[in-house]
Amino acid sequence: MRVTIFFLSLVLSSFLAGAQTPEPAPQPKSSPPNKPSFIPFPILFSQPETGFGYGLAILPVYRLGADTLTRPSNARLLLYRTTEKQSAIQLTHNIFTAGEKLIISGELSYYYAFPVNYYGFGPGTALDDNSKIQYSLLIFNQRVLRRVVPHLFAGLQYRLTNLSDVRINTGTEDGRPSPLELRPLRERTQTTVSSGIGPSFLYDNRDNILSSFHGNYLEVSALFNGGALGSDNAFGRYQLDARHFQPLFRSERTILALQLLAQFHGGYVPFRELANLGGASQLRGYYEGRYRDRQLLAAQAEVRHHLFWRLNGAVFGGIGQVGDSLDSFGEGGLKVAGGGGIRFQFNRHDRLNARLDYGVGRGGSSGVYFSIGEAF
Known about the structure:
376 residues, Porin, two-stranded antiparallel sheet, 2 helices
């Protein structure tokens, strides 16, 4: 679940986040670790399910180690509350230790009484299948990878989700029962804990993880959930995430970004843990979770171009599908989306952007997305 955030105070906060830093000059071979800034700044956002929201954000970027080959680490802390009396806290981090011997990344988030649109599962769901549900959710995800050779890392990941207080507010728009009511009773009336551990392998030679100009990212991972780890359901998740970045026209003013994402599940998968299409990161133009099922394949491309001052523009397009199995991917038609947006670089030194995107999908689906960092 991703909250779309509108940073009305970006221009002001850019001064707090290093906006007065000049354009970076060529860096020496070594430099002392820099100190992160923990200065909070206000945020405002709005989305149909929550109404208006407000809160604080802290976005430190820092380098561990004395060599410039160690890429900057970053974190994001968001605290917010909505006019509908929902509240949430999100903490994410990506840490590169000195010499990039370790990569430590993860998330700790808690959402209280958060509503979502639920359309059921499968590639053929319709807009009138929509029903409103809400739940409280705790997410803890941690990955620790050790460098094997330059740019290649291997390690373990652990993920815990605790879903509770599931409430079905209404049926569908035409009065039929909510699609969630067709799921097993334990998924909608009791706490559902998913707890899994598994291997993760990563090749990453991107020049900057916040906004890449060139390089490749390839992650292959598996997650095994079972009763021995306290999980209510036994299921496996297998994921591949491949990305490529390169300048166009022999200039870093224009960047081509590509991504291929595959996620496959086996076993009994709770509805909240199914693979889903849409949202602020992939197939923008579809509501996050508009389509969900056991298997997913998606690809997207984006062209990013520097306009002037701190502003960049982007155009993007994507295609994807979900299904119970690969054989069912032909059902319901491929999901296609595209759009464009602008970026405001409020931390030029570390290329940390805030973005505003508008995407359009098939069947009258569309969305506006405000977020920190690139989509991928």
